[in-house]
Automatic annotation (TrEMBL):
Organism: Gordonia rubripertincta NBRC 101908
CDD domains per the UniProt record, alphabetical: cupin_EutQ (cd02228)
Pfam families: EutQ (PF06249)
Recorded superkingdom: Bacteria
Protein name: Ethanolamine utilization protein EutQ
InterPro entries xref list: EutQ, RmlC-like_jellyroll, RmlC_Cupin_sf
Amino acid sequence: MTIESAKALEFRVTSDAWKNLPKMPETEYPGTEGFIGDVYENPDGSPMCSGYFELRHTDEPLYYEYEYDEMKVVLEGEFLLENKETGQKIVAKAKDAIFFPKGSKIYFSTPDYALAFYTGQRDATLL
């Protein structure tokens, strides 16, 4: 075992990262109010990114096509999720875990407000 491999690795804690998330571009997500931001972008070469996604009620759903596998945990509110290709519709509520396989085409909406934490197996440039 080398000295470098024996070095203890430190974990990270980031507070309040869910506050003041950047708004998703109106040009890509017209008529919606989605906010998203990575907290950790491929830390130490990890193949994962993680952060927060917030959605506010609008008349238009937010459409997102996944180019990577992602998991979300709903923290507050509820998401109405629809995959029009498969006909699948479900309501994901606080404390529910969600998995979106790469290639999923999802319409997100909410009756009021929803906040989730996500982890995606992707490069930071794909957000």
